[in-house]
Amino acid sequence: xxxxxxxxxxxxxxxxxxxxxxxxxxxxxxxxxxxxxxxxxxxxxxxxxxxxxxxxxxxxxxxxxxxxxxxxxxxxxxxxxxxxxxxxxxxxxxxxxxxxxxxxxxxxxxxxxxxxxxxxxxxxxxxxxxxxxxxxxxxxxxxxxxxxxxxxxxxxxxxxxxxxxxxxxxxxxxxxxxxxxxxxxxxxxxxxxxxxxxxxxxxxxxxxxxxxxxxxxxxxxxxxxxxxxxxxxxxxxxxxxxxxxxxxxxxxxxxxxxxxxxxxxxxxxxxxxxxxxxxx
Length: 280
Known about the structure:
Layout: H1 3-13, H2 28-31, E1 44-54, E2 57-73, E3 76-87, H3 89-92, E4 97-106, E5 111-120, E6 123-132, E7 138-145, E8 151-158, H4 165-172, E9 185-187, E10 190-191, E11 196-197, E12 199-210, E13 217-229, E14 232-242, E15 249-256, E16 259-269, E17 278-279
Protein name: DUF3108 domain-containing protein
Organism: Xylanibacter brevis
InterPro entries: DUF3108
């Protein structure tokens, strides 16, 4: 994977969250890839400021926002989640980022459909995934529009559950962390319209985190998103989620080929649970 494309995926994974192939009913086989949702509800909205370490100074380089609403997909109750990232002029000098992601999942977070429209650097491309679950397997129909306008279609089927950048984010927020041990790995296979990534989460324990430009402190759980590429393990993102039922990402540290970046939560509304991790 080229550096430019890798950087785009890392920046999107930080916020770090099936039209023709999806059947009109949710089957038992689909439920195998789901998880009971206790972390969020319809109407949740999160906003972030993005910072980049420029010559040992942290500079604001953009914003991101994520929203989730109750919807339907092919007549089935579903969550519709979207993520929008926008770099400012400072980031444009290094890496242009104008990305919009969309996903539909069942109410138990089984993936149904995913779309990413991305301008990363000088490229604009579109990725789409449609999920179906024949005989308990995960079947993906993949569509990609390259920067040159060419359309690429292919299909793949796996025995294991497969996710995308958005649905894996929603799923991870619902993990029962009381059962995790520090250093434990959680497999998280993620696909785009080209290939499947060998990736996982590593649990890093607990900490108390002070937010940037405020006195707010949160008790947090630490996770690292790791991808294996070219025979080596690469930590792409280290993120801090609130140690309460929301599992709200409040800070993300990103390790890019051209430097380090951070995302800080700046706003939230429509939370499902009380924010008990915030220290007074």
